[in-house]
Write a structure and sequence with these properties.
The chain is α/β, with parallel strands linked by helices. It is built from 12 helices and 14 strands.
Length: 373
């Protein structure tokens, strides 16, 4: 029974997927005398947390109840008051927590406060499921780097575009729809300047039911971004951030800034790993829990080789392009022997129309060739 209730809290939390960042996904259920008297979930950053919403629904029935929540109740003041305090004030008897909050501002303090005020607390029910639910949030809290997903789409013979650069479309409508569902969930989408120059992508979410646009992130060392590109002209629908060198044209910098683009000079040693690390930490510090990397071969090679990719979404279309000059998903990673290949743990496969989606987790490698981004 308790597992079913915790599964229900996780199901509640999922309702807000892609809406709560930089906060985690949280659901809460209040049970009294064997009956659910209140339910709630955190709907959006800055709004009441799951426990508060559940307490509001339960009202006076929360007194003497048991609360099920997939993440430790917060104990600090942020944009809202502490949930631990709200639970104590409501007079709940017991709180069942799936996992401890990795946020250093909480990290067990919520549990300690509850226990210190006479509330019984159990921790660890469906912990693995709770961690999987909030993998984006956990990654940023633990490493100060966003969770990175690399997505690509290729033909059976490993081509993402013809030798002329044409890539519309490798996959069918079902697969492309799935990509837009992912864009709706993540906080940012990252590409290199060559992708912008070649494809002039919109980098937004296009779902029939609407959706949230991710922050558009461009790696553009020399500030080549055209002022009339779609990532600039469509900037009103989401933020656009360009990471560049410190020595760029002041005229071009002002032109982009006036158009609403945020240009961020990168501080680093000039070595790829150092500069990517700086970029990702900057994004984490500005509240991004997750980044979808959709760049070309060079960007992909840099992120994979330097160990920044957590997960891959690999679409395969039943088509053949051929040709030695056609484009491939990943560029040079300095690998000369098969034993050096970066291993991938396949998590799932999914058929979408005529295409196949393979999801996997990257196993960290040690090769670190220096690549220009």
């Amino acid at each position: 029974m308790e597992e079913q209730l915790m599964k229900r809290t996780i199901k509640l939390a999922v309702k807000a997927k892609g809406r709560t960042s930089p906060n985690p996904l949280v659901g809460a259920i209040i049970v009294n005398n064997g009956k659910i008297v209140g339910e709630g979930y955190h709907k959006k950053a800055g709004t009441p947390h799951a426990e508060v919403n559940a307490l509001k629904e339960a009202g006076t029935k929360a007194k003497g109840s048991t609360v099920y929540v997939n993440l430790e109740p917060c104990s600090h003041f942020g944009k809202t008051s502490p949930c631990a305090d709200a639970l104590i004030k409501a007079g709940v008897k017991k709180v069942v927590v799936a996992m401890v909050d990795p946020n250093p501002k909480v990290a067990g303090r919520g549990i300690e406060k509850l226990r210190a005020n006479g509330v019984e607390v159990e921790v660890g029910l469906l912990e693995a499921e709770a961690k999987a639910l909030n993998k984006y949030f956990i990654k940023r809290q633990v490493t100060n780097i966003p969770y990175i997903i690399y997505k690509t789409a290729m033909t059976l013979d490993g081509k993402i575009a013809t030798e002329t650069g044409d890539s519309k479309w490798v996959t069918g409508s079902e697969a492309r729809h799935r990509v837009h569902q992912l864009r709706d969930e993540v906080d940012g989408i990252l590409v290199g300047i060559n992708t912008v120059l070649q494809d002039d992508p919109q980098l937004n979410t296009r779902l029939p039911e609407g959706g949230e646009n991710p922050v558009k992130i461009i790696l553009d060392s020399y500030l080549k971004l055209p002022i009339n590109s779609k990532v600039v002209t469509l900037n009103s629908k989401s933020d656009t951030i360009v990471f560049c060198n410190r020595e760029v044209s002041k005229v071009k910098l002002k032109e982009l800034t006036d158009a609403g683009v945020k240009a961020v000079p990168v501080s680093g040693s000039g070595e790829v790993k150092s500069e990517l690390d700086w970029v990702l930490k900057w994004l984490a510090n500005h509240g991004l829990n997750s980044i979808l990397v959709e760049g070309g071969a060079t960007i992909a090679a840099s992120f994979v080789t330097e160990g920044f990719v957590d997960e891959i979404w690999w679409f395969i279309a039943p088509k053949l392009v051929g040709g030695s000059k056609a484009f491939s998903p990943i560029g040079d990673m300095g690998i000369t022997k098969m034993e050096q290949a970066v291993p991938v743990e396949v998590v799932s496969t999914e058929v979408l129309g005529k295409d196949i989606l393979i999801k996997g987790n990257i196993k960290r490698g040690e090769n670190k060739p220096c690549l220009q981004v």
